[in-house]
Amino acid sequence: MLPSNSYRAYVDNSVVGSSPTDLIVALYEGAIEATRQAARCLESDDVWGRSKAISKAHNILTELFISVDCEKGGSLSQNLRRLYAYMQSRLLESHAKKSGEALLEVERLLSNLLEAWRVVAAKTARLMAEPVMPVMQQKREEEEMPMMPYGGYFAEPVDTLSRVAVSF
Questions:
Q1: In this structure, what DSSP letter does residue 96 have?
Q2: How many CA atoms lie within 13 A of 17 on its CB side?
Q3: Which 3 state secondary structure label does DSSP give 152?
Q4: Average pLDDT of 89-97?
Q5: Which is nearest to 53 in space by CA: 69, 74, 36, 29?
Q6: Cross-strand pairs, 165
Q7: R_g of the chain computed on alpha carbons
Q8: Crossing angle of helices 20-43 and 70-97, rounded to 10°
Q9: Given a cut of 50, is residue 167 above it in pLDDT?
Q10: How much is the average pLDDT of 120-136?
Q11: Which of 80, 128, 135, 153 is the one with CA 20 to 30 A from 60?
């Protein structure tokens, strides 16, 4: 019982600490693995295993479908939702007709989308890793405020950086 609780805690923490793009990548990886499992079960004539794997891939595609933000994505999001629905229908068709071709097609589509999402995830991670200027430093640069020299003072009121500073 302890190993499953530890594993569950690990998975829960992984999900909570992941970025949205990392979660989407994980969903694609899960759908691809389920599709491959369905193909293996088709080859070995394991109907129950194939059914479970296709259901898993179908459910993951449902999650991806409902996570698409149609307001922000416009026509791209509509096309993505159509593609998810198409892949779901191909999965069900592959199960009903025992078609390995349909499973292969879905796997290829998912793999292409996965590669695109990996690029997005990498770019997002790089942007998040860039250091952010402290607020005071940003203000100083925006307003071009001169720094007071240590142990000194300005001979005249400071209007610009062109004033002469006097130090001890």
A1: H
A2: 6
A3: strand
A4: 96
A5: 36
A6: 154
A7: 27
A8: 10
A9: no
A10: 74
A11: 128
Q: What is the pLDDT of residues 51-71, one digit of tens each?
A: 999 999 999 999 999 999 999
**Integer Cα distance of 5 and 137 in angstroms:** 47
Nearest to 90 by CA among 72, 109, 73: 109
> What's the pTM value of the predicted model, to 2 decimals?
0.68
Residue 127 corresponds to which tokens in the numbers above? 């942007």
Nearest to 50 by CA among 107, 92, 101: 92
127 pLDDT band (50/70/90 cuts)? confident
Contact 91, 109 (CB under 8 A): no
Asked if 5 and 45 count as a contact pair (C-beta separation under 8 A), the reply is no
Q: What is the pLDDT of residues 130-144, one digit of tens each?
A: 765 555 555 555 555
Asked whether the beta carbons of 22 and 118 are under 8 A apart, the reply is no
Residue boundaries of the structural domains of the chain? 2-130, 133-168
pLDDT at 52: 98
The CA distance from 109 to 79, in Å, is: 13
Q: Which residues contact 79 (CB under 8 A, 6 or more apart)?
A: none
The answer to whether the beta carbons of residues 113 and 125 sit under 8 Å apart is: no
